[in-house]
Description:
By secondary structure, this protein is an alpha+beta fold. It contains seven helices and four strands, in the order E-H-E-H-E-E-H-H-H-H-H. The N and C termini lie far apart (about 170 Å).
Amino acid sequence: MVIKVFLASSSGSTAIKKKQQDVVAFLEALKVDYAQLDIACNEENRMWMRQNVPEEKKPSNGIPLPPQIFNEESYCGDYETFFDAKEDNSVFSFLGLAPPPGSKEAMQADEEQHMVENGTHAEETNEEGTRRDSIEVPEEDRNGDAHEEQEEAAEGAEEDEVAEPEGNEATEGDEEAEETGHAEEDEEQDEEELRQLENEEEADVEEEGEEEEEYLEETQEEEAAE
């Protein structure tokens, strides 16, 4: 396969000349076999280039400018796409050529292939793991630990139910003690009230006695005065 670079040897544009020089110099640095086809002094080359550049790649005026690059009859691109491939270390892919061993592009291709292989292997491993997980396991084997835990919980509940009467007895004893305490408190209150009544009655008796004595004294004084 021969790389064809369409150039204009007598172009008056400094920008076009620079672009052509960049493409040629880089191809020589990569030791890529190529052929220069001049469109300035060869009308056939000019017409072929214009006819074989894809319509979507042509500028708005429909006239592609050099440099234009082909791999035999296959269109590779113009200077801008060549420059992008150069920046991405993918010029050989841009030209449709296999990168030489040891080149940056070859190493990148190997890394990408390695990543793809690893990704495929990981997908296969995941699929195999999924198939293993999808194998049905008897419910008793799958939930053996869960059944044991449920049985232990049920046994614990039964023991709690058996022990419950003791708790009820203790509750009844507390209630009896509480009732006894209330009865004692009621008795103490009754006794206190009786003592208060007795004290009040004694006080009343004493007041009545004092009043009677005062009344007798007054009566005696009145009689003595008479």
